[in-house]
Amino acid sequence: MGMNNLCKNKENHNLKDISNISYKETKDPKDMERTYITTLQTKSIAVIVPIYNVAPYLKQCIESILSQSHINFKLFLCDDESSDESLQIALEYAQKDTRIFVFSQKNAGQGSARNIGILTAGGRLNFQNKEELKQNLEAKTFGNLKDEMKTFKGFKSYFCYTGKKLIQAFICQKAIKDFESLLNPDTQIQDTPNFDYLCFIDSDDFIKPNTFKNYLYYIQGVDFLYSGFEYFFDGVEKDENLRTHFQNYRITKEGVISDKDFIFINIYTGIRSFCFVCQGMINHSLVYKNKLLYPSDIYAEDLLFGVLLVGISSRIYVLQKAFYVYRIRTSSSCAYQSQYKAPPRFNNILESFNGDCNLLKEYLRVQSSIVTAQKILAWANNYKDREKANSIKRVFVPTYCKRAKLILNFSIDPLNLKKQFYALKPYLNATEKTGAIKRVKNQLSYKIGLKLMDYANNHIGIKTLILKIALIATIHKIKLGFSKLYFIANPKRKPLALEDYKDFKEAFELKNQEVYQLGCKFLQMRFTLRGFKHFLLELRR
């Protein structure tokens, strides 16, 4: 048996760490203006802004959007039953600009509010039942909304959302324009999506001039744009230690990266979590085809959306420039605040915690982790690309299961989360096992590398080296054959991927050491007598 056949090996030798991930197709800002004029001016954007009690900041947010140099967009302002003047401000702007559409719903969370925009942009909100629709017109669900609606008679772009149905609520001769035509169960607002891209902006934040023009330039040819942002400290002390998402992921370059590299960044940094809301722009067709939505009625709904967005994407443009301005204030929904104010939809749960909003917040975080883990598993079990689905499941689910473990610290559990957590326990310790280092040391590259080092240090002669390598390769090939048969018969016992072990970083470092790399070079060498002699000569130098 020839040495070439003995040493055939399927190990991945193209090992990289986070510092040398390939960022391809970096775009030149100098080409942006020409490209925009020739191909991008007609691109349409659905801009989705969820609104909840942001009256002091909403005007700045809307003005920053309306002042964009790219004007081909529709702005969906989705109010989540604000108790301040937010809805009134939104409606006033909508009267001035026909690109603005205002939506109202019973308090259900920012995720649900964003979904109204996504579903409307994709034509997926419809009227399902004539009697139920009529009842909803008179139901208490609308509360004060009916009175607010009547103050804007003749207003064509104000809609109410009841949880399942979208109702155009401008008042003129009829209560609803084309009411009867909308009662058909099969009728949709539109049949196909007519937007090229989706962009989410939080209603207390704002964007810089030319944001859309830049986003459009950099998103071409990829699934989503992952852009930088900067903090704006409003009424709170500036925190010099507050890091951006790029700093957390140790991303210092820009350009197109693959979904696999993006997942690897999560693995290598140990974050294993990805939220996406306002950090860029998304190709609308990707969201539409995969029916991607935010989970409704949970805290931190952006965690699941981000993970699944990576799951359905293949190419991502990482843009270092910061066009988005993220406001840090005392009463926002972010973790920066010291005192959490519970939205109305959580009042029943709040009573169980005797009005302790901060304790409720911690409980809702646990619930969010459980729901996120459950939905990632459900998605992974049904996604057609099994390799990608399993990768997403392995990398991200254990993270949320660990966070969910905090439910054991609660003596009060009104949502019965403990039972749901116990169902997730099999995934809890998926990244706690060690064994990556042992796996690397059992690889052919490492074993041959050790013998080559012995030869280089004059511990063994050339004949001994050849015999030992031949013996190692023969035994390795036999073991590999038995292992394949064993795992075919016992698929559940198949070993984890290296990155799923607790000691994966040490294993990657071992792969980068001289011993392993030497073995890789030997296996990649053409096995001719001349080439073999040259390799050994170089080894002894």
From TrEMBL:
<dbReference type="Pfam" id="PF00535">
    <property type="entry name" value="Glycos_transf_2"/>
</dbReference>
<feature type="domain" description="Glycosyltransferase 2-like">
    <location>
        <begin position="47"/>
        <end position="123"/>
    </location>
</feature>
<dbReference type="GO" id="GO:0016758">
    <property type="term" value="F:hexosyltransferase activity"/>
</dbReference>
<protein>
    <recommendedName>
        <fullName>Glycosyltransferase 2-like domain-containing protein</fullName>
    </recommendedName>
</protein>
<dbReference type="InterPro" id="IPR001173">
    <property type="entry name" value="Glyco_trans_2-like"/>
</dbReference>
<dbReference type="InterPro" id="IPR029044">
    <property type="entry name" value="Nucleotide-diphossugar_trans"/>
</dbReference>
